[in-house]
Each structure stands twice: as structure tokens, then as C-alpha cells.
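1st attempt posting a full record on here, be nice pls
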Amino acid sequence: MPHNTRLHMKARLPLLVLLAAATLAFGACTHVREATNDAVAWVRDALQTTVDAPLDRTVKATTTALNNLRFAEVVTKADALSGIVTAKTARDEKIEITITSVTPIQTRLDIRVGAFGDKPVSQRILSEILQELRD
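the predicted structure (as C-alpha cells):
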């Protein structure tokens, strides 16, 4: 390889390393879109989204959704700023939905199923919650 080409390759190496690191860092975040056009993100093994509903209504819809899906041991805890709804799947995996008030009319949902996240089950739970909020 000519000397000039080796220098050119050395100059590109930091850029390639940076691009590889960025790909690995952001590779865990997969964005999907719901039919409702709500932004949904898969971050750190949890499904995250913001819904246009007040906290108390979202907590109630979440509890109802988990009961509709016949999960076991549904437990709800909430105050004026946040809530958490937990349940168990038939395979004894823990479902934990953290609900946080963003504004008086917007609420953030973080849905985690199992230790490492179960994306299809999380998406099904979100669909049921959104249906309850529409009703």
C-alpha cells in the first residue's frame, strides 16, 4: 500500500470507531409508531410513550387494561404525581408500569415485562391501555 494511502486510512480510523460506538450506543433504542401516531420508544428493555390523558385517568386505564388481559396479582399505587401498576404473567414474569405526570393533561408510561423486557407483550399492554383511554 502506498504511504499516502496508509495516512488516509489512519485519518479515517477515528471516524469509523466513533461511528461504530454510536451505532452500538443507540442500537438498543428502537423506535416504532403506533397507529395513533403516538411516539413509542423501546429504551432499556422498556416501552416508553407519552399519552394525552391526566395521571388519574391513565392509572385507572392501566389497571383496567391489565385486568382485561387477565394478568394475575394486579396492584395499583398512585399519588398526585406518579403511579405504579404491577402484575404477573401466566409464566410468573413481573409486569411493571410506571406512570408519571408530565403536565396536567399528559402522562408518561414506562412498560417493562420480565427482567429483560418482552416487546410483543409490552406492545399488547400499551394497545389495551390506549383502547381504555379512548373509551
